[in-house]
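sorry for the late reply, my laptop died twice this morning and i had to redo everyting from scratch. anyway the thing you sent over, i finally got around to it. pasting the sequence first so we're on the same page, its 180 residues, then the predicted structure underneath. double check i copied it right bc i was rushing
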Amino acid sequence: MKNILLHICCAPDACIPVPDLIAEGWNVYGFFYGSNIHPHDEYIRRLEAVKVVAEHNAITCELPDYRPGEWLEGVKGLESEPEGGLRCAECFRIQLEAAACEAVRLGCEYACTTLTISPHKNVSLINAIGEEICARHGLKWLARVWRKNNGFLRSVRMSKEMGLYRQNYCGCVFSLRKDA
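ok and here's the structure:
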């Protein structure tokens, strides 16, 4: 059985990738990076929901400390970028870099992300960033498009069945802007 670290952006988006990877024979380690989430009470809601998914699927899920200042420093200068622009690409990079470091620490050979279940995210960009970061860390990137085969709709249904908190914005302070 091969070890894979699955970067989890939020619990609803993990509802399909986690059990699908397990069914394929992967030993899945979850990793929830939440320092991009604002405000803190939103982070806590999402963190608690991720714990439910991890427990439901009997996986270990790494939960690094909440450090929004570090994330804000990482996207400094990109504050006025539109949603889906350069700031989002940098946010993906920050999250996937942290996930790759954790994958190495845990002895995983592969990494993947739940980000590609969203119909609002650029799958090609996410997989290119993941591939590049994993190559630098000696990992293999498992490029998946989780929204295929009604993955997003299935995740909505599954998260409702599980009673998970489902957010209505990506998470960062900038995505809360009215013009975002």
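The chain has seven helices and five strands.
thats about all i looked at so far, will dig more tmrw
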